[in-house]
Please model this.
Amino acid sequence: FEQAPMYVAVLTFLGFGVGTIFGYLRDFMRAWGLEKRNVAAEREQQKDFVPLYQDFENFYTRNLYMRIRDNWNRPICSVPGPQFDLMERVTDDYNWTFRFTGRTIKNVINMGSYNYLGFAETDVNALKTVTIELQKYGTGICSTRQEMGSLDKHVELEKLVAKFLGVEDAMVFGMGFATNSMNIPALVGKGCLILSDELNHTSLVLGARLSGATIRIFKHNNMQSLEKLLRDAIIYGQPRSHRAWRKILILVEGIYSMEGSIVRLPEIVSLKKKYKAYLYLDEAHSIGAVGATGRGVVEYFGMSPDDVDVLMGTFTKSFGAAGGYIAGKKDLVDFLRTHSHSAVYATSMCPPVAEQIIRAMKCLMGLDGTTQGLQRVCQLGKNTRYFRQRLHEMGFIIYGNDDSPVVPLLLYMPGKIGAFARRMLEKNIGVVVVGFPATPITESRARFCVSAAHTREMLDTVSTADVLLKLTSDTPLKQHGKICLTCVQCKIPAALKGAVIINKV
Amino acid sequence: MAAAGMGQQWVLVEMVQAFYEAPAYHLILEGILILWIIRLLFSKTYKLQERSDLTPKEKEELIEEWQPEPLVPPVPKDHPALNYNIVSGPPTHIITVNGKECINFASFNFLGLLDNEKVKSAAQASLKKYGVGTCGPRGFYGTFDVHLELEERLAKFMRTEEAIIYSYGFATIASAIPAYSKRGDIVFVDEAACFAIQKGLQASRSNIKLFKHNDMADLERLLKEQETEDQKNPRKARVTRRFIVVEGLYMNTGDVCPLPELIKLKYKYKVRIFLEESLSFGVLGEHGRGITEHFGINIDDIDLISANMENSLASIGGFCCGRSFIIDHQRLSGQGYCFSASLPPLLAAAAIEALNIMEDNPDIFQTLRAKCERIHKALQGISGLKVVGESFSPALHLQLEESCGSREDDVKLLKRVVDYCMDSGIALTQARYLEKEEKCLPPPSIRVVITVEQTEQELDKAASLLKEAVQSVLN
Model:
């Protein structure tokens, strides 16, 4: 990843420092009653119970997050396609409460939803089969897979998923997050070792913790770190008792959602074969989005799906539905059918959602008679490359692999997070900004998700808007009624950085 | 100054003189010592921890020799849970299982809303407007106006300040508990708590104290013990939070928790109560508001109510409701809320419509209760099986009165009973558990679910069929 210049890091820390000082000041004023308390309070009858939240835990929430809270949880009222309609929201008391004005902001360009192949659509022809199935099956299942909840639709879907990925068998679950957190404990237990990437998603971390196995972290996409851990693990065995590990499982993701980097699959597979470990690949963002025909990172690197022991993915991102799957050899799937927590205790996927996945997958595989699926994948590839190239030309720091449709654009300063998102909304573009704690404290970013449904004009609009925004960040945020000191710092890097950019405009 | 300089020079001269006058052995000894010190200073440092006992060749050998277990142990072909019952078509009142049409006594479709036309048309309208998926978590443009509407409606229905929706029923309580209870906090939980609660507790890393099922004396004993502990260390006690987690209607045993006594204990020992109402929401209480309405308790006395919408509301997902002070915290720290895609809007619209139906027809709850009582009475006389569950509980268990000896044999016997019933047109299922993972494994049983759609004849038919089945299998 490209590193930022040193002054940026310094200014970022300064920004956070100023925010923290103000936070303490306001807390002090609140404690002494000089300022109104806007947070909900404990019940009168329960005032002498042990406090539910510690004051310090919520310090960040109260003081730093609340200032820019209007950039998250923005409600929409249309399909999350390439453009959507946002409900207009205003706040009278600096983001403590929101009020809907009743108006909608129409046709905002959507750069935030995970709609990689554009299957989030309301075209009547496309959703014909889903409508029929919804009428036939209704919306609920009211039972678990092992009891009375296994429908013929699930069997059909599982066969299709297995065929799509080129593996022996597959099993589907009702929620992507739950797929990880309920199946990793079924696969590994005490006495096993999990080697997990530094930047793995919360669901993988939760699943690993719930399993009871020992967890060791290797540096992001760093093969030397992984190899060293593998060697040490096999040679020295379990800590203290030095018994051999029962199994070693490597947890990686196809595309990492905050960095946009693609896993180094060939190297990991060769390591895994050399040291006899097992590989669990979470393709939540990469299935459908990379690869010549949309079959994920396995196809992207030209490898065989047999190389990966457990292929996991979700249907939320590229297929416009909900749920997750695990695919692999028949033994593995049979074991999961009997021992997965989800099969025994959690409801199965609902039929209309299953039908949406079936029709999307058939479209991708070309089974519906058209080449629409392939066209979508190609369009996504083109859009990704074009967008990344444009942003790179303009001098922004972008993380991630050139082929990944997740494009994080680094903002660094805390003041810029709020400013960027708000100004983009004024230009009718909806973006997602992320800061601490989802990312390291100095690397706040805006994350764009390119979709096959975006047209070239939309991408052009977004990239030029970025440039204008960087230049015109001299307008301080007056929403607070006082000038936000961090914005003064925003001015400096734009001017220093953009000698080339200023000339362009 | 000059005198000091002279003094120094004087000392130096004296030293050199002493050097020349010293005996030879003295000089040699000191020379050797100095050389030794220099050698020690420049030789390589010796690390005590270094495992210098393995050569690279030995390391390679170890790596070659190590054999891991197979990723998954092989599953025997006749494992009872391997072959699922495949349902063709919707799992409604008349259900087609494995090709045979039966009356459904196994799906938790208590209010019969699974194939309700109004619910379906609300879902269709939502499908036309929003498509299927939400393509994002709640924080990143995954919040739809239907979600906000559903949260408001649920909060109004349950008469609390706020509600929060999750996209999966299991994840609801499993994310809610770790959001409040952290390492070092204490949770008192009933033995018969369902698996989702157990996973939530495991994820929270708190101290778990199990008390015997519905035994308030046992719980009070544990609370008193905790109180004496607190007095020994008051500073720590002031920051450890305490919770009681109970279910309204227990899934594993079919009975209710004694909520009024729990409230008394709550105020006496200053513990917070988390109530899991998956089975009792839409079943108990005059208007279906759950166990708080059933016992006539002020809903503000319960800190958090969590339920899933997959039983009475015939949708998918779950919700938590309570005061804003408590619920708002989950919007940033509930893992299943922040890091997972939101509920598909068609399911949210279906749930809103189902709520409408529940509010408009409050008499279905009475009808359901009457049916439960009827079948509870009818099932009492079966010799060999005992009925486990309250008389107004719509989810009962039928356990063997005396076990065959091993759990496997019990399971096989019950399977034969279930197969007999299914061949004759009543769809039943065994209650499934993960045998190695449960904390307190309930005995094997047949699950009987009563819904509002079953007629009295069907209820009687089911009861007599079960009698027949048990007769023929046990003899």
About this structure: Chain B has a mean pLDDT of 87. The CA atoms of residues 191 and 212 of chain B lie 6 Å apart.
